Every structure is written in C-alpha cells, then in structure tokens.
Amino acid sequence: MNARGYSVNHPSVQERIEKKRQAALTGGGQLRIAAQHKRGKLTARERLELLLDPDSFVEYDMFVEHRCSDFGMEADHNKYPGDSVVTGQGRINGRLVYVFSQDFTVFGGSLSGAHAQKICKIMDQAMMVGAPVIGLNDSGGARIQEGVESLAGYADIFLRNVMSSGVVPQISLIMGPCAGGAVYSPALTDFTFMVKDTSYLFITGPDVVKSVTNEDVSQEELGGAKTHTTVSGVAHRAFENDVDALLNLRDFFNFLPLSNKDPAPVTECHDPRDRLVPGLDTVVPFESTKAYDMLDIVHGIVDEREFFEIMPNYAKNIVVGFARMNGRTVGIVGNQPKVASGCLDINSSVKGARFVRFCDAFNIPIITFVDVPGFLPGTAQEYGGIIRHGAKLLYAFAEATVPKITVITRKAYGGAYDVMSSKHLRGDVNYAWPSAEVAVMGAKGAVQIIFRGKENQAEAEAEYVEKFANPFPAAVRGFVDDIIQPSTTRKRICRDLEVLASKKQTNPWKKHANIPL
Amino acid sequence: HIRVTLCRHVHVKMADEAVCVGPAPTSKSYLNMDAIMNAVKQTGAQAVHPGYGFLSENKEFAKRLAAEGVTFIGPDTHAIQAMGDKIESKLIAKAAKVNTIPGFDGVVKDAEEAVKIAGEIGYPVMIKASAGGGGKGMRISWNDEETREGFRFSSQEAASSFGDDRLLIEKFIDNPRHIEIQVLADKHGNALWLNERECSIQRRNQKVVEEAPSTFLDPDTRRAMGEQAVSLAKAVKYSSAGTVEFLVDSQKNFYFLEMNTRLQVEHPITECITGLDLVHQMIRIAKGYKLQQKQSDIPINGWAIESRVYAEDPYKSFGLPSIGRLSQYQEPLNLPNVRVDSGIQEGSDISIYYDPMISKLVTYGKTREEALKKMEEALDNYVIRGVTHNIPLLREIIVHPRFVSGDISTKFLPEVYPDGFKGHMLTAGERRELLATAAALYVAAQLRSQKFLGDLRVSIVPAESRQWELCVELDKGVHMLGVSRAGNNYTVEIDGEKVEVSGEWNLASALLPITINGKHRNLQCLLRTAAGEITLQYLGTSFKLRVLSKLAAYLSKHMPEKIPEDTSSILRSPMPGSVVAVSVKPGDNVAEGQEICVIEAMKMQNSMTAAKTAKVKSVHCKAGDTVGEGDLLVELE
C-alpha cells in the first residue's frame, strides 16, 4: 500500500488484466469461433499457433481496443481486447518472423484504426530488426462505422508495404475474404498465397458487379483461388485448406533470407553437390520441334528434387520458383518447351520479371534454363503491349546483381536469347549443352530470308543448321563460357555458386530505376 | 551410322557400331526388313542375332538373310516355319511322339465355325493365333458367347501383331503349370535339353515370375520331357537354342504347347543353373561348330529366379501398361548373385511403342530359399521413379506361402487374388514398423529444417525438443504416437508398444536402409511433402501416410471434406494407347458392362466398358486417336 491507498498489485487490476487477456484469447466468442470452424476455417490464433514454432509467439497489443464511439460502438459489449487482429512476432524453424492474423470472429475481421495501428507497429519493427512479415488475411473490409479512419488505416499499411518492399520479405496468405481497398496490401507484398474454396480477393463483390456491369458471376469465379492462380496471376499459389496452407508456408519460409541484409539461407544438405544426373543427357529430344518438360531438368539438378514452384498454373510457358543447391536457396527460371514451345509472351515475361526482381532484392542467386524460340508474335500480343511487358523481363535480368548462372539447353533464338540472362546482361556463368542452338531464328525462317527467291533452299537450310544450330558460334565468341555435358550440370552449378557467393556488384547510384511498368 | 555423342540408349552405347533402323513405331524400324537389310549391308555384318520378339521367328527375314549370304543366328527357315505355325507344329509333334493337347488342327473360318468346333472339343477351349506367341491373340472361352467375342479379338490382335489372322482352337487344360524345356541343337544332328524353366506365374498368358529348376518335376518326368523336347527338335532338324513349352497337369501329365524357335526372355535362369551362355552357344552353332557338351554334362546347379519388372500398374488386372520418364533409376547391382538385364537407364522414356518391360531381375542361390531371399532384397533395393511399376506384385508373389511351397499353376494370380491385387496386407506388427518409420523420418526432417549454416545476423531459436507427439494416418486409421530421440535412434511408442528405429536418415537418398527393432529393413521414401504426406515403399508396396503434429491433426478436424468427382459416369483411359474402335455415340443407351470402346496399348486390345446403365452424354475420342492415362474417353449421363 502506498500513500494514496492503492497498489499496483491490487487484486482488482490483476483480475482485470486476466479478464481482458481471456477475452482477447477468445476473440469474438465461442459462437463465432464455432461458425468460423463450420466454414472450414481456423481462428486467427489457431492459425498462428500452427504457423509458428510451439510456444514461440510473442503477442503485441493484446489490450488495444477500437476507438469508435458512433453507432453504439462505444458500448462495452462492442469492445474486444485486441480488436479484430492478432499481431506479434515468433519463430518459424527457429527463425524470426513478424506476423499479423486478422480475426474474422471480431466484426468480421474488419479493419479499424486500431487494427491498422497494430499491423503498422509490427511492420515498423520488422523493418528495423530486419525480419519478414507474414500477414494472414481474413477480413470483411473496412470498419464502416469508423469511416475515413479505416481508410487512413489501409493507407498507413500500404505505405509500410511499399517502404518494406525490397527490405524484408512480405508474404500474404489469404484465408477468407479480402475485398475492396484491402486487396492492395497483399498486392504490394512479395507473395500472395490463397486457400482454395474459402478465400476471395476482389475489388468489388458479385453483387456490385451485377449492378454495375450486369455480369452474373460467383464469388469463386470472380476472385477465388483458381481465378487468381490461373487467370489473373494475382496469387502465386493456392493450397487445399488452412492447415495445408500454413504447413506449406512454413516450408516456403525456409527458402527466404530474413532481409536484404542477409545472404540467401543455407541449410544442411544431404544431396551430394557433385552428384551426376545421367537422365539429363537424354532429356532434350533429337528433334528440335519436340517438346520436353523443363521441370525434369529442374528436379534432376536441384537438391532432393525439391522445387517450390511459384505460379505453377499461370503463364506456364515459363517456370519460376525456389530450390536449393548444396543447401543454398536459389531462384530458378526456365522456359517451358512443353507449353507454347516455351515462348515468351506478356504473361510469362511479367511473371518472370517479378520473380527475378525478388531474387535480386534478397540476394538469392538466379539459375536460368533457356530453351526459347522467341517472343510470341501476333496482334493479341502486340496490342497487349508485349514490347513493354517483354522489356520488364529484360530489365529485371539486366539490373540484377546477384550471382547469375545460365544454362542453354536447346533453343536460344533472337531477342529472347538476349533477354534470358545472357552473357551480355552480365550473366556470371553461361553454359551451353551440346544440344544448344544460339541463333537469330530457326533454320527454316533464316534461310527464307537470307536466300529469298533462290533455289536449293534445302541445301541452304542444311548449311545454316551446320553453322548455327549448335553451341559453337556463341562459344567461340565467349558468349557462353563452356559447353558442358548435361549430366554434370549440377556439379558445375554447385561449384560456381561457391565461388560467386562473394560476388559484389553495384549499379550506378539512382533515386530509383524506372522499370517499364 | 549414329554419331557416338548422340548415343543415348543403353543398347546403342554398348555397341561398337550402331545404325538407326527407323523411327519408334516398330513397323517402321524393328519390323522393317528393308531397313535391317540395309543396316546389314552398310556394316558388312556376317551374321544377325534376331533377339526375341520382332523378326526373331520370321521365316521371311531368315530367307532374306540367307539370300544375301548372311547367317541367321537361329534355326533354319524350315524349322521356324514348321514350329512357328501352331497347326503344323502340332502335327509334327504328334508324329515325333510328343504328347499333345486334343483340339482342332486347322484354320478356323469364322466365329460360327469357332463355336461349332468349340462345341465338339468341349468347353473350356483356347482360341489362339496360329502365328502367335507371347500370349498375344489368345483368348480362353467358356461358352459360345465368349467364343464369338474371343474369335473377333484374337483375329484382330493376330492381324495387328503378326499380320496373320489365322486361328486355332484346342482343349483348354484347366489349372495347368507352364513348364518349358530349353533345348540346344547343332547342325550336326546333336541335341541337348538344358533342363526346365517353370513359368506358371502369369497374367493374361504373359509370364511374370520364372524359375529354374521347377519344384514340381521329379527326375523321371524331367527326363521324359527333355527327351520328347529333343526328339521334336531332331524331327525338324533344329539347330540353335529353342524352347519347347509344355502344360503340365496336377498328375504330371504333360502336353506339348508350342516350340519357340528363338532365345526366350527368361533364358538367364537356365544360364544360371547350367553355367552355359546361351547366346554364345547360338553363335557357335550358327558358325557350324559342334556342341561341346553331352547330355550328362548338363548340371542343375542351385536355383535361379527371374522377376519381370514391368512398367505396369499391378492394381489394374495384375498389370496395365504405364508410360513415363524414369526420373530416377537404380538397379540393385551392388548385391551379389543379382543379374539385371535391361536396356534402359535413368532418364529413359517408357513409351507406348514397345513392350513395357523395364528389366529382367534375376537372382541366384545355392538353394531356392536363398534365391528367393536374394530376390526380396533385390526388389527392395530397386529404385524406379517416374513410372508405375509392378514391384509391389512381384514382391508379394515371391513371399506368398503358396509360391514358397511351390504350389502354383497358371491360375495362381486369379486364385490368390480373386478380387484383384491390392498390395501387401500389413500385419499388426508390420503396421507398427511402418508407422514408426514414418514418424522417425518426419522428426528427422523437422530437425534438419532448423539447421541453418553460416553466420547469422539474427540468431536462431530452435524449437529444441526431445519428445514429439504425432498423429499418423494410414488407410483411414489414425494413430497417436510418442517419439523420443537419442542421436539417430528413435523410440516410437504406438498403442503402448515401443518400436526402436535407427538409421542414417539421409533425406536425399532414394533408399532408406534402417533397423527396426533390431531387424534390417530396406524401405524407400517415394514422397515427403511439407503438409506431412509421406509415401513409403515397404515390403514392395507403397503406403501413403500422413504425419502431423498433435496440434495440426487436431485442427485438421475443422477442415472441409473435398468431394471427389463421380467416376461412374466418366470413362477415362486406364493406360496410354491408341483408340482402335468406338462403339457408341452421344445419345446411345448403354448397359452396364457394355463395350464402349477399344484401346490398344503395347499391342494388347483392351475393351472399355460402361460402369453403369446410362445414356451416353458425350464422346471425346475417335478411332485412331492416341490417348494418355486418365484422358477422358466418354461421359455418361
């Protein structure tokens, strides 16, 4: 007891703390939790428990409450300790991560000023500490009762998303609705994952769409996981359910460095670095018109055939994703001959460019497998702006200063050859397989131009093939560093990555570059 | 000639000189005599070994070689012709006092004549291609209806496989054993029998597991069969290696089936027990040398087993062809007394153009028991990824009590697995072993995922634990497991029982050699995902497990069930192949079991039938289409 007659240890305060804590832990209450479960969704806290290592979660702002006093919101029964989001930091496989998890059981997870403030707090700290931010989105949208304060909250988050971009990795996992202005936070983060059947991302829902454009469309068709992972390219991967998504997210997190100050992580590796891959000697078919699966090459070369593919169902003519080489995270980019002959088009260029820029921002070496017949011709592509979109991929490879290793497995034709991490764009090590053909175009087309109107085109074609349909023209000029036996590719790349680990390269000072968006 | 740098196939790599005889379809390459004759001329070859299959029993080919003065390493054209024709061969066998099966020796004109003849012989009857072999173009019929259908199928298959649609019909010996005698004869009238091979384990009349010698033959029967085989060989002035196939009934009565005038697929087991190199002998004989051995020189040394490893799904009618790229492939050649004859390697494609055989896996031992043990070990250490294979079935056959005791017949598979092959049935103890291994593997992987190397700016706080509570699912059974660890040794507690599992836990290796409760086991990890799915190959069969932390398992209860698609109204191709015929069109009413279309794969015609009585909604294939496994063929309403 002090002079004024109360104690900091006064039982009633202790009780109040305990009561608030308990209230915070139950969110919107048992009924709403049951409703959440019934929808096949976990609660905000269950999700964090599963995402983070056991007992590692350190919660912030459990006592924060919303400050709205309109529309009866000031009533006690409308106050929930912690409001509609759970925030804090924790560990994934021992590594630090900042997290927020929106609580749909409290006002449908709607974003109040307080909710935004909580998210901003952990984002600010993540930036200072240098650790990634993972957001688990499950929110009906703005807290309408709060009006502009809610909008301000979104903007505060957007600003932080932008400031954090390229500083710490940011990952969004959409686990429920995410509509209206809210969608721009995930859009600004590095990776957006979705849960199938229970998550939606759209600017406006089906009702508004109907009233504005008279289109009939379901939630799922408009903004479900399938739409965004196959048609729009907004989301990078979709998972079966909450549990599947969170366990995969833990796995994915291990590929990422904590910040742009950290090198690509290296984990213990059981796969011999000098392992020969005999299957690669036969993977490229004799006939240059025949397709094969670039994933066969990727799986064969990387550690333990483990490849975390990004956007596996979107713009499938390019393959991008993370893997490890001798334990070290690498970004893989490869043309996919199986789909549209592996040509570059608008969507694949944009997909590739964003991935390459992520890798470059976070010190992840890039390994590029090239089998590209060129850019896709046609009005659809030209009208859609293939020139400026294609330029993005070129730009991304050119500006990247991380170790860049390129393997030309077969075709490297025309401008697309230049684009695909060529020697000319500062490729560190550029290899060609014996099946490589580096040329301006295929033999038939070339001969038709060079020998227009002349006879014996077949003979000319044979001469062209002899001259250009092989790795020598590039190799004699030093545009490829070596012609290697495919089965030795893994061994070579592992060795190169060891050497390039200390690579230092900087671009000229600039406020920021001006990528052709 | 093929440039050495382009040699990608094992058989080409092994050759000193190689000539490409054409594209993948066999009619344009290995069956294209012009192409092969050109290769002979181009290389100046003095002799041709025709292998097995393709042109090995083609008398026209042998004649063309003879016309060019090139030696055919095999018997004379006369013998090929006489024995290649099932009707003629039976007449010759009868004349040579070889026991034969009662039946109709002649060409059957049409389905109705087939029914009439079948009635005279008495059901069951066997309808087979006169020119055939290897089970192709063969159908067993138990009634008139089946006879008509069998006649149609067999003549089509015979036409497509051999270009000769003649058929014959004979009494079908129920429950027989298939035992064959290897003979070797030179051009000087000498002939030997090199003992028998038991090839009773068959599916759809194609051999799966063979052994030499047979557990069933006593020395007298063996000698009687051997002598008849030799007398047949002599009757047709046979030279080279050949095989006389017999059906043997439960009373050890044996009947001549046919003579194969070539090297047999299963010849390695004869080589193992006799010490003779049959191909070497064939070359010597072709050159005109005399046999060096006498009958008394031919031993039976030990026991040899051959498993035919096929790219087939054994869960569908004991083996429907599968195709794909061998993403990983490792033969168990590190083991002693193991021989693997194969023509493929890691990265090879198993295509629709050839027989889906991956290899012949042969093990040898002083006793049958030793050879069988070795086979178990070899199958467990055989790494095949990328195609579905029949190792689960092979592994089950060789440990089945009936097989182990030698109580087998050509009906073995349908008798032992009347409802189809379902994989290994785990005992309670085996189930515990499997669960414990999955749990230990899960923990080993979890621990490794916390191991980051190098200098770290932000230190790691590992969730260090020595105890794990896990929930493991296997075939809808859910088990709570407690795992504790000391180094590489894990103690797993399952339903009050403790299982000790230890191993190297190399998570990159295809093989997972571990010790479970002191017993050495070779498992293979086929799949391990972030979401806890683990597929283990254990005792040959692959088992799908899911390992989750107690928390994840608890929370999984809230996850919605996803409804799988209704498959009864959708007909998908069970294998890759080409569509031979489509018997329905949209709007047709079909009855359950009615033929919808016919898919030909690896030269076998497979009738696809309706799973229910319904109206045809849509047809997605037409005759001549190439279809992949799982491709939609027809949709019913």
Automatic annotation (TrEMBL), chain A:
Cited Pfam families: Carboxyl_trans
Entry EC no(s): 6.4.1.3
A GO molecular-function descriptor: propionyl-CoA carboxylase activity
Recorded coiled-coil stretches: none
InterPro entries, per database record: AccD/PCCB (IPR051047), AcCoA_carboxyl_beta (IPR034733), ClpP/crotonase-like_dom_sf (IPR029045), COA_CT_C (IPR011763), COA_CT_N (IPR011762)
Enzymatic reactions: propanoyl-CoA + hydrogencarbonate + ATP = (S)-methylmalonyl-CoA + ADP + phosphate + H(+); butanoyl-CoA + hydrogencarbonate + ATP = (2S)-ethylmalonyl-CoA + ADP + phosphate + H(+)
Record-annotated membrane-spanning stretches: none
Pathway info: Metabolic intermediate metabolism; propanoyl-CoA degradation; succinyl-CoA from propanoyl-CoA: step 1/3
Cellular component GO terms, alphabetical: mitochondrion
Entry's family note: Belongs to the AccD/PCCB family.
Protein's name in the database: Propionyl-CoA carboxylase beta chain, mitochondrial
Originating gene: LOC122148131
UniProtKB/TrEMBL annotation, chain B:
Predominant localisation class: mitochondrion
Pathway: Metabolic intermediate metabolism; propanoyl-CoA degradation; succinyl-CoA from propanoyl-CoA: step 1/3
BP terms from Gene Ontology: lipid catabolic process
Domain (ATP-grasp) ranges: 90-287
Pfam family, one: Biotin_carb_N
Domain Biotin carboxylation span(s) in chain numbering: 1-418
Gene Ontology CC annotation, any one: mitochondrial matrix
UniProt cross-references to Gene3D superfamilies, sorted A to Z: 2.40.50.100, 3.30.700.30, 3.40.50.20, ATP-grasp fold, A domain, ATP-grasp fold, B domain
PANTHER family: CARBOXYLASE:PYRUVATE/ACETYL-COA/PROPIONYL-COA CARBOXYLASE, METHYLCROTONOYL-COA CARBOXYLASE SUBUNIT ALPHA, MITOCHONDRIAL-RELATED
Cofactor or coenzyme needed: biotin
Location within or outside the cell: Mitochondrion matrix
Protein's name according to its UniProt entry: Propionyl-CoA carboxylase alpha chain, mitochondrial
